[in-house]
Design goal:
heterodimer, A: mainly alpha, Sufe protein. Chain: A, two-stranded antiparallel ribbon, 6 helices, B: Aspartate Aminotransferase, domain 2, seven-stranded mixed β-sheet, four-stranded antiparallel β-sheet, globular
Chain lengths: 138, 403
C-alpha cells in the first residue's frame, strides 16, 4: 500500500478515539506490535541521539524496499516509532524521501515531533530519511 | 500560612495545561514567580531603566541605588559580613566558573580538590577544565545507598594537599541535605577552602554564611522566586582579593592605559560589563517576598508536603524512592519497576502535572544507583496536599495505562 493510504488509514483509526487516553492506549498497543530490531543490531551505533530513553533504529533494503526496525525503553516512544514505521517501512527509498509527515499532526501527536522535545523522534525521522537517501543510490 | 492567598500571588498557577488545572511539581528546576517580582521587572523598565554606576543623571542614580540596594538585601538575607563580598553573577554556573578560574592560578599540580559525588554536572565540568590546565587532582566523596555523602571516605581523602572542597548544600537529584558544617570545619583544619553550591537549598531554608564560616557560597535567583539570569556568589574578602578577575570589560576597571589596567575594588572587579540590573532588583524583591512569608513557615509547610507525598507514593506497589536521607528538602526521586520514567512524565503532563524525568543533570548519581534516570517531583510552598492527591490519582491511572 502506498504511504499516503497507510497514513489515511492511521488517521481514521485515531479519529475513533474520544480522548487522549484512548489515543495513547492505542499507541502503546501499536508499540507492542512494532517490527522489533534484531538483538544483534541493538547496538550503540544504532541509537538515536537526544532521547531520554534509549531508541534504536535499523534499516535494510529487501527487493528494492526499505525495511525499518526499532525498539525503545520507553513504551510511548516505541508507540510513536511504530506509527512511523507502519507508514514508511516496506516502501521504496524514493517514496520515503518524498513522504509528508502531516499525518502525525492530524492524529494529535504533533507535540512529540517538536524539535525541542527530548524524545529524539525528530532525530529518528531524520535518520529514517538518511537511510532512505543512502539506499536510494543503490 | 494562608495558602489561598499565596497561590493568588502566582498568576501562572491559574493556567490550564492540556485541559487540566496546572500542577507544577518541577520546583527544583525553577520556581514560579509571584506578581511582586513580575511587577518589579516591568516597573524597572517603565520607570527607571538606566545604566548604572557612572551616570550623573537622576535616573541612572535611581537605578544604581536600586541595584546596590539589592546587593544589601542579599547580604542581609545570607548574613554576609560586607556587602562587597556579594558578587552579582548570572547564576550558580557562572559563580562556579568564576571561582574555578580563580583557582586555576592559585593551584598547581601537587594540589588536590575534593568534589562530592552528589554533584550537578555544572559543578564537575569547570573543575575538570581547571585541572586539565593546572594539573590539580580531583577526588570524589562517594555516596551511600541512602543518597548521603560517605563521610568516612571524605576523612580519608582530605589531606594537607587539599586546597578546595566543593559540595552542594542540597542535592538536586535526590534532595539530600549535606552536612556542610562538618565538611567546612574539617577542611579548614587542613587549610582548605570550601565552596558550597546553595542553588537547591536557598529556596527551602535560610543560611547564615558567617555562622557557617564558608569561604564561597552561591545561588541562583530563579530557584527562589526571582528571575533567571541572576545569582550571587559570596566569597570571603581574602579569597576574592587573591583571585584574578574572571572577565575583562567595563565596570571592573579603575584605570586603563594601553600599558596597564588597574582593576576596580570588590565587588566590581568581578562584575565586568553592564550587569543584569533589573534581574538584581527583582532578586531583591523575591527575597523580600519570601522573608515576608518567613522561611521557618516555608520549611515546615514543605516538610509536611514531603511527608504526605512520600507516604502516598510509597503505597504504590513497585514504586521505589531514591535518596531517603533523614535530612532532605521537598524532593522525591522515584521509579516504578518495569516502567520508563519518560513514559510516566509524558502521561502526567497530559493530566496537567509538570514533573522532571531523566538524569537531572546528575549522571554520576544515577550511575551510583545503576539507573538511567528517575521521575522527580519537587514541591514548593505554593503547592498543596490536594495537588499531591491529584498526582497520586493521576499516577495510578498512568501506571494502569502503561502496565
Amino acid at each position: 500500500m502506498e504511504i499516503k493510504k497507510i497514513q489515511d488509514e492511521i488517521i481514521e483509526e485515531f479519529s475513533l478515539f474520544e480522548d487522549w487516553m484512548q489515543k495513547y492506549e492505542y499507541m502503546i498497543e501499536l508499540g507492542k506490535s512494532i517490527e522489533l530490531i534484531d538483538p544483534k543490531n541493538k547496538i550503540d551505533s544504532n541509537l538515536i541521539k537526544g532521547c531520554q530513553s534509549k531508541l534504536w533504529l535499523f534499516a535494510e533494503l529487501k527487493n528494492g524496499k526499505i525495511i525499518y526496525s526499532a525498539d525503545s525503553e520507553a513504551i510511548i516512544t516505541k508507540g510513536i516509532a511504530a506509527v512511523l514505521l507502519r507508514a514508511f517501512s516496506n516502501q521504496t527509498p524514493l517514496d520515503v524521501l518524498s513522504a509528508d509527515l502531516s499525518y502525525i499532526d492530524q492524529i494529535g501527536l504533533k507535540e512529540h515531533l517538536s524539535p525541542t522535545r527530548a524524545n529524539g523522534l525528530v532525530s529518528m525521522i531524520k535518520q529514517m530519511k538518511y537511510y532512505a537517501l543512502a539506499y536510494s543510490n543503490k | 500560612m494562608d495558602i489561598a492567598k499565596i497561590r493568588n500571588d502566582f498568576p501562572i498557577l491559574k493556567r490550564k495545561v492540556n485541559g487540566n488545572n496546572f500542577i507544577y511539581l518541577d520546583n527544583a528546576a525553577t520556581s514560579q514567580k509571584p506578581n511582586l517580582v513580575i511587577d518589579s521587572i516591568s516597573d524597572y523598565y517603565k520607570n527607571y531603566n538606566s545604566n548604572i554606576h557612572r551616570g550623573v543623571h537622576t535616573v541612572s542614580q535611581e537605578a544604581t541605588d536600586a541595584y546596590e540596594n539589592a546587593r544589601i538585601k542579599i547580604q542581609k538575607h545570607f548574613n554576609v559580613k560586607n556587602s562587597y563580598e556579594v558578587i552579582l553573577t548570572s547564576g550558580t554556573t557562572h559563580s562556579i566558573n568564576l571561582v574555578a578560574n580563580g583557582f586555576l592560578e592559585i593551584l598547581n599540580e601537587n594540589d588536590e580538590i575534593i568534589i562530592s559525588g552528589l554533584e550537578h554536572h555544572s559543578n564537575i565540568v569547570p573543575w575538570q577544565m581547571m585541572a586539565e590546565k593546572n594539573g590539580a587532582k580531583i577526588k570524589i566523596i562517594p555516596i551511600n545507598e541512602n543518597g548521603e555523602l560517605d563521610m568516612k571516605v571524605y576523612d580519608s581523602i582530605l589531606s594537607n594537599k587539599t586546597k578546595l572542597v566543593f559540595v552542594n548544600h542540597v542535592s538536586n537529584a535526590l534532595g539530600t541535605v549535606n552536612p556542610i558544617k562538618k565538611i567546612i570545619d574539617k577542611a579548614h583544619k587542613l587549610g582548605a577552602a570550601v565552596l558550597v553550591d546553595g542553588a537547591q537549598a536557598s529556596a527551602h531554608f535560610k543560611t547564615d554564611l558567617q555562622k557557617l564560616n564558608v569561604d564561597f557560597y552561591t545561588t541562583s535567583a530563579h530557584k527562589l522566586c526571582g528571575p533567571t539570569g541572576i545569582g550571587m556568589l559570596f566569597g570571603k574578602e581574602k579569597w576574592l582579593k587573591k583571585m584574578p578577575p574572571y572577565q575583562g570589560g567595563g565596570e571592573m576597571i579603575s584605570d586603563v592605559t594601553f600599558e596597564k589596567t588597574t582593576y576596580a575594588d570588590l565587588p566590581h572587579k568581578f562584575e565586568a560589563g553592564t550587569p543584569n540590573v533589573c534581574g538584581a532588583i527583582a532578586f531583591g524583591v523575591a527575597l523580600d517576598y519570601l522573608n515576608d512569608i518567613g522561611f521557618e513557615v516555608i520549611e515546615n509547610y514543605e516538610n509536611s508536603l514531603l511527608k504526605y507525598a512520600t507516604e502516598k507514593l510509597k503505597s504504590i506497589s513497585k514504586l521505589k524512592i531514591y535518596g531517603e536521607s533523614k535530612d532532605k528538602t521537598s524532593v522525591i526521586s522515584f521509579n516504578v519497576k518495569g516502567i520508563h520514567a519518560y513514559d510516566i512524565g509524558t502521561l502526567l503532563d497530559k493530566f496537567g502535572i509538570a514533573v522532571r524525568t531523566g538524569q537531572h543533570c546528575a549522571q554520576p548519581v544515577m550511575d551510583h544507583f545503576g539507573i538511567s534516570g528517575t521521575v522527580r517531583v519537587s514541591f514548593s510552598f505554593y503547592n498543596t496536599k490536594e495537588e499531591i492527591d491529584k498526582l497520586y490519582d493521576s499516577l495510578n491511572r498512568v501506571l494502569s495505562m502503561l502496565g
